[in-house]
Amino acid sequence: MPTALVTGASRGIGRAIARRFAADGYDVAVNYRSSEAAALEVVDSIEDETDGAAIAVQADIGDDDAVEACVETTVDAFGSLDHVVNNAGINQHRYTPDLSPDDFRRVMNVNVAGTFAVTKAALPHLEESTVAECPSVINLSSRLAHAGADYEPHYASSKVGIIGLTKSHALEFGPTIRVNAIAPGYIETDMTDATTSEEEKEQKRQEVIPVGRLGKPEDIGQAAAYLRDASFVTGETLNVNGGQRMQ
Ligand SMILES: NC(=O)c1ccc[n+]([C@@H]2O[C@H](COP(=O)([O-])OP(=O)(O)OC[C@H]3O[C@@H](n4cnc5c(N)ncnc54)[C@H](OP(=O)(O)O)[C@@H]3O)[C@@H](O)[C@H]2O)c1
């Protein structure tokens, strides 16, 4: 079976991507930082509902040694690595006067340097992949990379960085490996629940998002499956936001 590593797959968008890849016939490594029980629940759900295998792999994506070990554990378990989804990310709702340079660096370290580190560790294995659709890397950017974000300047900056990294790696790794990004709009997960009231959600549904609903993690799972299979697409950022921001 072809294989994929999804970082930050214990919850939210990463969980949906891992489950979608498994449903599509992939063995999946479910990376997590601290939510072991949730990651094991994802593994169990994959093994119950699909023919594929899954493993939970603990690693802090901000830690280079842990990243190396995570990739090696994945390859040892499955024998190959065909796709990487760099989904793990953190945010923090803080206005610049209350944001320290260390806060800024911490978000950049996980979101951008962590994405770089996972891709670099996976590179030799992706180069050896023989999957028909061409091995790929899919990075999670955000609508806020384009729009900016008050209270989240470090987060928005990190998501711009992801787009630069995606294009650069698409140039460096072609034609062997494709590299794309997804820029989700508002997706209901723990990350967004932490900063949005029910009134704000209703306003987004009614006035802000043309399709009239909030995004679901499965919407991003579908986008990731498209980019995984789209053998003539590389260096792209796919906007998945219900029309909230059209380009
Ligand atoms: N939700 C949205 O509306 C939205 C919009 C645009 C972009 N995004 C991006 O989509 C991605 C997923 O977002 P989400 O809303 O699903 O987030 P979430 O609900 O907060 O889940 C975050 C996931 O990332 C993991 N994680 C966090 N820090 C990690 C680290 N240092 N090492 C390894 N894993 C780590 C968490 O693991 P633990 O459970 O172990 O902590 C969890 O599985 C992020 O990159 C985010 O920036 C989200």
TrEMBL record:
GO terms for molecular function: glucose 1-dehydrogenase [NAD(P)+] activity. Gene3D superfamilies: NAD(P)-binding Rossmann-like Domain. PROSITE patterns: ADH_SHORT. The keyword Oxidoreductase applies. Its EC number is 1.1.1.47. Belongs to the short-chain dehydrogenases/reductases (SDR) family. This is Glucose 1-dehydrogenase. It comes from Natronorubrum aibiense. The lineage of its organism: Archaea, Methanobacteriati, Methanobacteriota, Stenosarchaea group, Halobacteria.
